[in-house]
Amino acid sequence: MLDGENHKPVYPVSIIDLANGHATTTDDQGYFTLPVHTGDMLSFSFIQFHTEQRLAYPDSFLRVELFPLSIALQEFILHPDYTPFQKDSAEMATLYSKDLNVKRIKPSLGGGPSDGFGVSASGLIGSLAQKVSRSYKRDKKFKKQFELDMEQKYIDSRYVPGLVTALTGLTGDTLAVFMNTYPMDYNFARTSTDLDIKMWVRNNYRDYLEKGNMQPIPVLKTK
Fold it and tell me: How many Cβ atoms are within 10 Å of 42's Cβ, its own excluded?
């Protein structure tokens, strides 16, 4: 009795004579003996292997190979419990990965001898360098803007209109004016707790009222 893939002994395989119910198992070398009659059907089974059946003949050597079960599982993709900001950032980074990962060498202009036809080598190289320089600057500007956009997206994920409305009662255009008047710093958004942000909104709202925007501060309900 062998493993059909690596040809090593399989044990303890259960062997049953289906004609009369007699049974035995293989030893650690894969061998077994069982009294049978000509034409008896033998069943060979072992956990995690396909069951095989063979016709038996007395006084004969029977070689049987069992093959492991191969179970095809349905594909399953595990998505961590990312926040909307994290999902959006990952998608943006993937979308612009080529542009973000391009490493350009900052060009430098230098002088050189004439080519003999009135055109200096430095003129040709300088023209090319200027084009590369413009590309370098565009690339640098894009990366900087991308970084700023990601910072603003993170701020927007923490400094949300719903939170401000709940703390101040402001809505509509008044809410927009307040949030534009008191923008949140990225480093503050990154390092602050939820309680810090709530206190920051409340303090700014007090300042907002003191400057003549008279609207009462709502009473916060706590559980």
Answer: 22
Every domain range in the chain assigned CATH 2.60.40.1120: 1-76
Q: What does the block give as tokens for 208?
A: 């907002």
What's the CA gap between 1 and 190, in Å, rounded?
A: 64
Structure tokens at 219: 């009473």
Q: Which residues neighbour 85 within 8 Å (Cβ) at sequence distance 6 or greater?
A: 153, 154, 156, 157
DSSP 68: B
Record: fold of 1-76: Immunoglobulin-like (2.60.40)
What pLDDT does residue 162 have? 92
pTM for the whole structure: 0.40
157 contacts 183 by C-beta, under 8 angstroms: no
**From the first residue on, what is the mean pLDDT of each consecutive set of 10 residues in the chain (223 residues)?**
86 88 88 88 88 86 84 55 56 54 51 46 54 68 79 88 92 91 90 89 90 58 47
